[in-house]
Amino acid sequence: MAKLSLMFENKVVKEVPIGSRPVSIGRSPDNDIPIDNLAVSTYHARVYYEGGRLVVEDLDSLNGTFVNDLRVERAMLHDGDSIWIGKHHIKVDATADTAIPVDTGRKAAAPKINETMVLDTKARRDMLQQAAAMGERSQFSPGRLKMPTLVILNGRVDQKEYVLTNKLTVIGKSPMATIHLKGWFKPQVAAQINQRDDGYYLGTGAKIPSVNGTAIQGPVRLNDGDLIEVCGIRMNFIVRE
Amino acid sequence: MQIVSGGVSDVGRVRTNNEDSFRIVEPLNLFILSDGMGGEAHGEVASAMAVDTVEQYCSNPGSAKGDSGVTLHGVASDSWAPETKVLQNAVFQANFNIHQSAQNHPEQRGMGATLTAGWIHDSKLSLAHVGDSRAYLLRTGSLQQLTNDHSLVAEQVRRGILTPQQAEESDMQSVLLRALGANADVDVEIDEIDVMPRDVLLFCSDGLTRMVTEPEIAGKLQAETDPKAAAQKLVDLANERGGLDNVTVIVVRVQDDSKGWFSWLRRDSGKKE
What is the ipTM of this complex? Predict the structure, then answer.
């Protein structure tokens, strides 16, 4: 009888034997191996015996199922293979002859890391390589990786378009503003855009800008195509390929 | 531009020693913060070394010469201001010193530190950082993050694998991709931000941001105008929430220069100040 071992940092977190029924893996708690992570689809993959051979099948997941380093739809598994789902590693043990463990109904908790660790170069490269492979197919668009443009639709400013290259973009009358507003009564800082890890956030300045017609109540993450309005200036936030 | 500042560092409620260090070099308007790591209180050694080195180097850039083993970048190369390049070189030197020390003292192996430093000169803030200690800017009520964490979870957010919420819940938050002392060389991230009157800058170790939300940080900074008192209030709030880690906060306020305008008016009307 073979078994699947969900690994974390070279420690076994959960072990599931593969019997006559398929072993399901996915985000929903009713999977045999539940993985609570948004990069994992609700029903992501399953492992079963077919004609005496051990097979893994991807269930049309968003981010894919990998065996060793290759993305697969359906593949034969061998002893020692590694299945990668999201950042989770499942080891295949095809020679084991284990008794079926009693399911106590409790989820195995991943060990917490309280001390700061620095990944060495190889570990970092390996983790980032996997991360990069997943990132290309990720459901979240990393807007930060492409530089967005503010296209001015109407209003008295210097340029028709502004590419947002900086961490902070100021819209206002200040000489330090990227988008410089003209007019006696315009504030130094009307609104601001902050580039963060997950995208660009519009924040208030002396004025409260609106996004798609609604005044913002705090920093708001901008999406491709959003219409921003402040101080009578209307502009489109565009993320170009 | 007149600058006032204050800083507080606290061991927190759980740890037995404080491995954070910070320094405010008032004559230079230079602010340095470091969060050390490594067993047996070596984190303290690393963060103190980081802060001392950056202070010494920025105070006297010409003094560190060839045999320090550090590859220095030409101060006038490319479009960065000289202070930005000097600050970056200072952090390279700090990395070298910590790494060397660990080579020479085997018991220090594995010690390292984050570093975040800001240097204000001529309405410009030069920023340099390695690790996950942060710099923020509060301007007209909006709190904006100036540094991207060099941590695994932050990198996963940048690549679209995790949302910021998932990153906050992750068990791997302490895993860093860059730190001082880990290798002989390090990638120091630098940036320049234009500074305006009434700006408030905040430098902090992750002991603050793990326990206190950004809206709360913004609220405290707006409510308390004395920088040291504001820093203390933020530290107190982090401790009230559990104080799971050492916490260090530096608050810097750029004063409103409208006073200067009025003194010009008074001079013009013939009255002495």
Answer: 0.86
Q: Point out the residue among B143, B158, B191 whose CB comes nearest to the CB of A167.
A: B191
What is residue B149's predicted lDDT score, i.e. its pLDDT?
Answer: 95
**Hey, are the CB atoms on A167 and B171 less than 8 Å from each other?**
no
B218 burial type by CB count under 10 A (0-12 exposed, 13-18 middle, 19+ buried):
buried
State whether B183 and A121 contact (CB < 8 Å).
yes
Give B201-249 pLDDT, tens digit per residue: 999 999 999 999 999 999 999 999 999 999 999 999 999 999 999 999 9
Mark which residues 160-189 of B lie under 8 Å from A by CB.
160-164, 166-167, 171-179, 182-183
Instruction: Kindly report the average pLDDT of chain B as a whole number.
Output: 89
DSSP B151: B
Residue pair B1/A176 in contact by the 8 Å Cβ criterion = no
A97-117 pLDDT, tens digit per residue, is 433 333 333 333 333 455 677
Of all residues in chain A, what percent carry a pLDDT higher than 70?
78
Geometric angle at alpha carbon B199, from B148 and B157, rounded to 5°? 15
B52 has a pLDDT exceeding 60: yes
For residues B182-202, one letter each, b for 16 or more C-beta atoms within 10 angstroms of the residue's C-beta and e for the rest, the string is beeebebbbbbbbbbbebbbb
β-sheet bridge partners, residue B189:
B129
CB B20 within 8 A of CB B11: no
Nearest to A199 by CA among B170, B67, B98, B148: B148
CA pair distance B44, B192, nearest whole angstrom = 29
Q: Do the Cβ atoms of B146 and A145 come within 8 Å?
A: no
Is B140 in the A-facing interface, judged by CB distances under 8 Å? yes
